[in-house]
Amino acid sequence: MKKYNFYSGPAMLPQGVFEQASKAVLELDNIGMSLIEISHRSKEFISVLEEAKQHVKDLLQLDDDQQVLFMQGGASMQFCMIPYNLLNEHETAAYLETGVWAKKAIKEAKMFGNVQVVASSSDQNFNFIPKDYVVPSSAPYFHLTTNNTIYGSQLHVIPEVGVPMIADMSSDIFSRPVEGKKFDMIYAGAQKNMGTAGVTLVVIRESLLGKVKRPIPTILDYRTHIKEGSLFNTPCTFAIYVSMLTLRWIKKMGGLEVMKKLNEEKAIKLYNEIDSNPLFKGVIAKEDRSQMNVTFTINRPELEEAFANAAKDAGCIGIKGHRSVGGFRASIYNAMPMEGIDVLTGVMKDFALKNG
Ligand SMILES: *Cc1c(COP(=O)(O)O)cnc(C)c1O
Predict the structure, then answer these.
(1) Is 195 in the pocket of ligand 1 (CB under 6 A)?
(2) 168 an active-site residue?
(3) DSSP conformation letters of 7-31
């Protein structure tokens, strides 16, 4: 039976990417060697790295001073690298608190300087995105999370704030067109919408750097990675290759406008089922609903486990909600086909009929 991976990450990738990545592990492009044994400084790997960078630049329409880096340590490592590199002890960085990941970013920043949470939806269990807030002009940067993977909310309008803006886009990067130039820094763990676990995309404007007074360990200094072209230490070559293939696929599909259209169609269909089915209810304020992570609950909690099992039996894997929200979460990233949505909404319909 066909299975659909609705987990929030690692997530499903296009079948063609799985196939080509498998082939490259055996032999990369007829060079007589495996992708995962060749030197990260070989011309073959440099060409993979360069192609990946170029796709990022093209898709996000970046300026020349926006550097594209492939790093390790996950998006979580960026939570501490950002304040380490950008926040002086006496300064106050601005953060928007919209969920678990934002909270984790805030926690790290407090170790390096001051943090002002300009707005938070924490007292409503993060079921909406705050919109009325002011970012102080003295803040060295403003940090936000464009898509809240766990709660299932998403920023549909990127604010204009007048200070350098940093975005954690781990769970919606390349799912819709983004004006990359608007951001002084963008980062994303690859394992949700871009590739396999192990690599983190960082886009950073060089003009942001060199302003903090503290010494920064070499490997945690963005300038090191810019200078060394993401080759300061051995990068995760396989993960970068898989990201490159996925980015190539996105372009071949027609780019981010096409991704957005497909993602919208899938999300609309699933939310329509949630809204019209008497058994289910959406978790997030309608205008802030995520097109990547669709969260919902069942109106009769005693049926929760039975529904989870019915979905699993139909091939829908990983729809149990995160432990901090409960209920269900269907993660429907770029590679999720419409058939996956059809199977899931079919299970929901059947389940409501049987239990109505
Ligand atoms: C998954 C996720 C993270 C953490 O990513 P890691 O690569 O596991 O460190 C951070 N932020 C968001 C929005 C995420 O979805």
Answers:
(1) no
(2) yes
(3) -SSS----HHHHHHHHHHHH-STTS
Q: How many CA atoms lie within 13 A of 343 on its CB side?
A: 22
| pTM to 2 decimal places | 0.98
Question: What is the set of domains in the chain, with CATH numbers?
Answer: 4-12+255-355 (3.90.1150.10), 15-253 (3.40.640.10)
Structure tokens at 289: 């609903």
Helices (H) and strands (E) in the chain, counts: 9, 14
Do residues 240 and 70 lie in contact, with contact meaning Cβ atoms separated by under 8 Å? yes
Buried b (16+ CB within 10 A) or exposed e, 81-112: bbbbbbbbeebbbbbbbbbbbbbbbbebbeeb
For residues 272-303, one letter each, b for 16 or more C-beta atoms within 10 angstroms of the residue's C-beta and e for the rest, the string is: ebbeebebbebbbeeebbbbbbbbbbbeeeeb
Nearest to 69 by CA among 215, 211, 219: 219
CA 74 to ligand 1 centroid distance, Å: 7
Separation of CA 291 from chain center: 12
Active-site residue 192, yes or no?
Answer: yes
- 131 is an active site residue: no
pLDDT, tens only, 66-117 = 999 999 999 999 999 999 999 999 999 999 999 999 999 999 999 999 999 9
Question: For residue range 217-236, what is the model confidence (pLDDT) as tens digits?
Answer: 999 999 999 999 999 999 99
Beta bridge partners, 35, equal none
